[in-house]
Amino acid sequence: MAAASAVTFARALNGPGRLQGVDLARGLAVLGMFGAHLLVTPEFVAADPLTWIDLANGRSSILFAVLAGVSIALITGGPRPLGRSALGLARRRIAVRAAMLWLFGIALIATGVPVYVILPAYGVLFLLALPLVQLRARTLWIIAAVLALVMPWVQPLLNALPVWEGATGGSLSLVLGWHYPFTLWVAFLVAGLAAGRSDLRRSATSRGLLLSGAGAAVLAMAMDATFAAPPDTYLAEVWASGPHTGGLLEVIGSGGFALATIGACLLLCRTPLTWVALPLRAVGSMPFTAYVGQLVVWAVMAAIILGDTGDLPGFRALEPFWPFTIVTLIACTAWALLLGRGPLERLTAWVCRIVAPR
Questions:
Q1: Mind listing the pLDDT tens digit for each residue in 139-161?
Q2: How far apart are CA 210 and CA 307, in angstroms?
Q3: What number of CA atoms fall less than 13 Å from residue 257's CA on the CB side?
Q4: Domain layout of the chain by residue ranges
Q5: What is the pLDDT of residue 58?
Q6: Nearest to 199 by CA among 52, 80, 292, 82
């Protein structure tokens, strides 16, 4: 029975109806966020491979946001938006997903684990996608480009609003996921929507994402090396390239990196190497489960071993990255082959069917 189930679910994971490269990119994003959470990383130096792990900082969460847009595009028709009735149902179910992501995010924040939980921001971004899902790829690419170029100039002004001050402001920041401000991060979501509307089954699309994304990343690095804004100024905030700065160079560079990663993963999964990447693809087939599971296990372990879920240096001193990564790869692969869809992905789909049946 187990062998038959494994064959069935392996076919689903590897079948023509699934974009294996998207699963691979999601798996990389999840494990990249593990690294950003659990490792103390040196500053990135292109000439020193030992520092390349720093690429996970900031870029993993941006890749996660771009892939959210890709996922929304795929469930609303892929290269061609669904018809009016089907699109209306899809919108309602996306809204339910948004609510669930937000609720799970608030619950994870309540554990006291010292990370900026992305799920509340993810929920807000899903809602922002609703009026955009009927648009074609060209329009979405234009909107994404405009947002990417304009919002870094606006974001410092939004960050400086008095609404974020005091305890109330801090609470508002947490429930909105303002460490990943939706006003700026919507650019990454729309870029993902545009990519998903561009027919990811075509190798030309994959090559285009790889080349254009890599070009944007290189351009941002060149701009960063060419001009340095005066420190502690508005222009420095706008021009910033560092992780989670929301600066123009981060948006261009890390956004381009995310698109290039998706393109590279899609191309790799057209080769036999896709089988080597099966465990990563299994993680990417259940990113909600893997992300939530990591933080729940973290909270339990920290409470038992350290007596404090918020002790980040103490938890990192336990060197949890490789145990977390290896267990996640094994557990997700076994679940995908024996049981199929991830547990939280199943729960989300079930709630969507209950709340929005038609």
A1: 999 999 999 999 999 999 999 99
A2: 45
A3: 25
A4: 2-355
A5: 82
A6: 80
pLDDT digit string, tens, across residues 218-277: 999 999 999 988 998 999 999 999 899 999 999 999 999 999 999 999 999 999 999 999
> For residues 294 and 281, is the Cβ–Cβ distance under 8 A?
no
Residue 172 tokens, joined: 């508002």
> Residue 4: is its pLDDT beyond 80?
no
Q: What are the pLDDT digits (tens) for 211-223?
A: 999 999 999 999 9
C-alpha separations of 290 from 28, 33, 293, 332 in Å? 12, 11, 5, 8
Give me the helix-helix angle, 137-159 and 182-196, nearest 10°. 170
| 162-173 pLDDT per residue, tens | 999 988 999 999
Distance CA 92, CA 289 (A): 22
Residue 40 has pLDDT above 70, yes or no: yes
| pLDDT computed for residue 7 by the predictor | 62
Measure the CA–CA gap between 224 and 143, rounded to whole angstroms: 24
Task: Give the DSSP per-residue string, 14-72.
Answer: HSTTS-HHHHHHHHHHHHHHHHHHH---PPP-TT-GGGGGGGHHHHHHHHHHHHHHHHH
Q: Is the dihedral of CA 209, 17, 21, 288 positive or negative?
A: positive
Distances (CA, A) of 44 to 146, 221, 226, 242, 351: 29, 12, 18, 10, 42
Contact 280, 26 (CB under 8 A): no
Chain-centroid distance, C-alpha 106? 18
**CA–CA dist 238, 100 (Å, integer):** 33
Q: Are 349 and 63 in contact (CB under 8 A)?
A: no
- The single-letter code of the amino acid at 264 is A
Q: Would you state the structure tokens that stand for residue 313, as one six-digit string?
A: 């240096």
* Total residue count of the chain as it appears in this document: 358
